[in-house]
Write a structure and sequence with these properties.
- The chain has helices spanning 66-79, 90-159, 163-174, 178-190, and strands spanning 11-17, 28-36, 41-47.
- The protein is mainly alpha-helical.
- Strands 1-2-3 form a 3-stranded antiparallel β-sheet, with helices on one face.
- The protein is rod-shaped.
């Protein structure tokens, strides 16, 4: 017996001796050990292999019956706290297996979706890094060119003879539309403020 029999509601597996008959093989069996309320005592039954045995456990004995050893794992599972009979029902087990397979397949599909999403995000991150690099290069070039461009625009504005020519140069430098430049030139020509 690997546990102490303290819980009167539980049953335990314990080693028991064979019946003391000359025809019985000399082996140690396993039996279910349980509290019998009617007798107010602990008792053992037959060996789990089906052989008749003597009453009472042999606590430190080593089980030698091959039949009992073959059934031992199943009985230990059935006697464990929380055991449910449906745990050994083939139909229930098939349904659980089918549900587990469905869940596994769903998890695989989800993993594939996550991998694809991860690749897409990696591609976007690479593209954003490249765009940032290009924008940085452009900004550095613009910073170098802006004073020169401003000087050239200022020179062309000084040379301009009409408001239209002035606003064409300013519009090109500041990125204004032709319509905005035309309105500004007309307003200056008429002396109006916008």
């Amino acid at each position: 017996m690997t546990e102490t029999a303290e819980d009167l509601t539980r049953r335990y597996l314990v080693p028991v001796a064979r019946l003391n008959l000359p025809s019985e093989p000399d082996v140690i069996h396993l039996s279910v050990y349980q509290w019998l309320p009617a007798f107010q005592a602990w008792a053992t039954g037959m060996g789990i292999c089906g052989a008749s045995t003597q009453q009472g456990p042999i606590p430190l004995a080593t089980v030698t019956c091959e039949g009992c050893l073959a059934y031992r794992a199943r009985y230990e599972r059935m006697l464990a706290p929380g055991y449910r009979p449906e745990d050994d029902d083939p139909e229930v087990l098939r349904e659980r297996l089918a549900a587990a397979v469905d869940e596994r397949d769903r998890a695989r599909r989800w993993a594939v979706r996550l991998e694809n999403e991860n690749r897409r995000l990696d591609d976007q991150a690479r593209e954003a890094k490249e765009q940032a690099r290009v924008a940085t290069v452009a900004a550095l070039n613009l910073r170098r060119q802006t004073p020169d461009a401003a000087q050239r625009t200022l020179a062309r504005i000084r040379d301009a003879r009409t408001w239209v020519a002035v606003w064409i140069e300013l519009g090109q430098y500041f990125g204004l539309t032709a319509e905005q430049c035309g309105l500004e030139a007309r307003a200056r020509r008429r002396g109006e403020a916008l």
